[in-house]
Amino acid sequence: MKSTLFYNGIILTQDDQRSVASAMLVAGNTIVAVGKLDSIAKQKKSDTELIDLKGKCVLPGFNDAHIHVWKVGQLESFIVDLRGARSIPELRYKVKSVADKLPAGRWIVGRGFNEQVLEEKRMPVKEDLDSISKDHPIYLIRTCAHIAAVNNLALQEAGVNESTPAPSGGVIGKTPSGSLTGIFYETAIGLISKHIPPPSYEEYKKMIALGAEKLLRVGVTSATDPAVHPELLEAYQKMYQNGERSVRFNLMPILLPDGGDKPFPIPEKFENEYLTINTVKFFSDGGLSGKTAALKRSYKNSSDKGVLRLKREYFYTLVKDAQEKGFRIGTHAIGDEAIELVLSVYKELYHQFGDTRNRIEHLGLPTEKNIIDIAVYAFVPVTQPIFLDELGENFISALGDDYINTCYPVRSLLNKHIPVAFSTDAPVVKNISPWKGIKAAVTRSTSSGNIIAPQESITVEEAIYAYTMGSAYAEGSEHLKGSLEPGKLADFIIVDKNPTDISTEKLDTMLVEATYVDGVCVYQINA
């Protein structure tokens, strides 16, 4: 068995004591020893490879606990990337440049617009998209993926008109006179999306591979894909069976499709070092940046309180069935109204099934009582500090002071000794680097320099732990990964400097020089 001794480095182990070591011995895919060189060198063999770290820093591989990996890859080559568009004419230009190259009748799909950064400060409507093409059905997804805009041909293809009822948990946009705007919210987007031809297996495979490649380049060795429908689940499983493995994947099959009331069947559980399927996913509300997260009080300068997607009794029936089959539950809940609903159901499940480590995805606006309940019942929040950077200006625009001062309260969670997992939710955000999220968790700064709830700031050390051990705990794999300790998997990264020794403003300049999975270098800068 091949063994390698890494020495002369700064190894931030992320163990319980946050120990710092200078050497690490790896044999096969497992860490054998971590500590001082003089003691570890006694365990090396005559053929052990020696790697001088030359003072560089070593960390466990990052674990993005909530990222739509295939959608990250999809934006690379399959759909129009609208992130960064600054006006509706620019958006139209991006889409038209693609439409002009495709035959009439082919669906045009794009993603990533954000009306907050558009000059017009509004979402595109069907008339805007009709001016791009009347020969192609057009479907553009807002950056949050909870809102979509379509043109008239897409409406015709989907058979949607003014008399079409909105599904439960969804809204069809209309003008005051009752005509369609072409904007669909939450579950109503399924009325359109189900008519778009799905990707083939080969296309899914390429999307997943592209997404995984991007993750390895930023030091992410494990990831949770948190909304996997049956066709995508099959693609992931087939890739695993064919030995196409890079990033370790934790998959969360979705049970309720958008626009439908009939749930997907609960899949078979599967758990090993490379692929895990033991948690099912639900959505209880929308997003803050698009003002569809379900609030108890209204959004700023509005009577709107967002969209609650779940009915409690039906939700309880579905999650109880899943728990009886041995699955954990992960539920998207951002607004306080949605969080309250989810916690009430989770607490009922707790009394029946005990501590199953059910997850709350995002947890944007919990109350103090919610945080106490999460601590008492041992639920696991999976949150995205990078939202503060990329979407924070939307939050400031949408929320009153009472809400903005409690937005994504990571410090309050840690003060209650709640294990917190970090993630990006990409491609909701564009930057997938954990260092960007770590910086946001520490500075609480938006991209424009405004500070959101500064009292919720945490330390660099706490943020790194959340992105490693915290995320491993969230998926129930802390015995395998998340820290550099003997017996754990040899997934780690080498970075150019010690993140605990630099200013917080320079955290997003951290450079991943090499990424290792199973003790093998799978990415090396300039290689």
What does this structure look like?
This protein is an alpha/beta fold and 527 residues long. Among the domains are: 79-193, Diaminopimelate Epimerase, Chain A, domain 1 (Roll); 252-474, Metal-dependent hydrolases (TIM Barrel). It is 30% helix and 22% strand. It contains 17 helices and 26 strands. A 6-stranded mixed sheet has the order 3-2-7-24-25-26, with no helix packed on it. A 6-stranded mixed sheet has the order 9-10-11-12-14-13, with helices on both faces. It has a 5-stranded mixed sheet with strand order 8-15-16-18-17. Strand 19, helix 9 and strand 20 form a beta-alpha-beta unit. Helix 7 packs across helix 8, helix 10 runs parallel beside helix 11 (368-377) and helix 16 (434-443) crosses helix 17 (460-474). The protein is globular, with a radius of gyration of 23 Å. The two termini are 25 Å apart.
Kindly summarize this structure in a few lines:
With 527 residues, the chain is of the alpha/beta class. Helices cover 30% and strands 22% of the residues. Among the domains are: 79-193, Diaminopimelate Epimerase, Chain A, domain 1; 252-474, Alpha-Beta Barrel (TIM Barrel).
What would the keywords be for this entry?
six-stranded mixed sheet, Diaminopimelate Epimerase, Chain A, domain 1, globular, 527 residues, 26 strands, TIM Barrel, single chain, 22% strand, alpha/beta
